Amino acid sequence: MSHSFLLASGNEHKAEEFSKLFDPTVISIKASTEKLEVIEDGLTFRDNALKKALAYRENAGQPVMADDSGLMVEALPDQLGIHTARFGGDNLTALQRNELLLKTMEPITALERRAAYFICVLCFYLSESEIFFFEGRLHGHISKDISGDQGFGYDPIFSPAHGPEGLSLAAVPDWKNEHSHRAQACQHAQKFFKERVGHN
After folding, report:
1. Is position 68 annotated as part of the catalytic site?
2. Which residue range is the domain that position 123 belongs to?
3. Marked catalytic residue, from 41, 67, 68, 149
């Protein structure tokens, strides 16, 4: 029996992306027909994922999956994280944010000091007594230039630690689909719900 969840987002592309990461016989995801304005003022990714899940759960009255993700740069601990999407201001393009991050990181030349990781937290809200969180992380470092055209966000300046050497995440879409922070979180969730079905 598949667990069906409403995605806490009206973005159909995002719903399709998650659907590809799950076995539909275990977890099925569909986009919300409504886009709710949720103030993401939590202190952690988990806080924000829960806020989104709760809002959509109250609105739709059915099980919901919400996600929150971002980029953590060890040399800039307070500048990205939960503020990743707003780094540099609200009106910058993805390219401008990448350029700004590269410029900010210019004085930091040692590879180990350019360490970073992407993080994704999923919140599955079934009821007040059944709320489950799953996390995935992809470690790597901030590269020194922009490369690759198959990704989005900060993918073009992120080099994964165990990916094809010398390539950014934006240059290895097939590898990313299998190993990304989002893929890892989905794998953890799928294992949990598959075992849950088996015990029912």
Report:
1. yes
2. 3-199
3. 68
Strand-pair partners of 108 = none
HSE-up of residue 99 (Cα within 13 Å, Cβ side) = 5
1 — pLDDT class (breaks 50, 70, 90):
low
Non-local CB neighbours of 15 within 8 Å, separated by 6+ positions: 7, 9, 29, 30, 31
Can you state the angle between helices 12-21 and 181-199, rounded to 10 degrees? 60
Hey, what amino acid is at 137? R
Buried b / exposed e over 123-158, threshold 16 CB at 10 Å, is bbbbeeeeeebbbbebebbbbeeebbeebebbbbbb
Rounded CA-CA distance 119/116 in Å is 10
In this prediction the pTM is: 0.92
Residue identified by tokens 């971002």 is: 70
pLDDT in tens, 27-48: 999 999 889 999 999 999 999 9
Please give the tally of structural domains in the chain: 1
pLDDT by residue (tens digit) across 111-128?
899 999 999 999 999 999
Q: Say which CATH number the domain at 153 has.
A: 3.90.950.10
Residue appearing with tokens 């390539």: 167
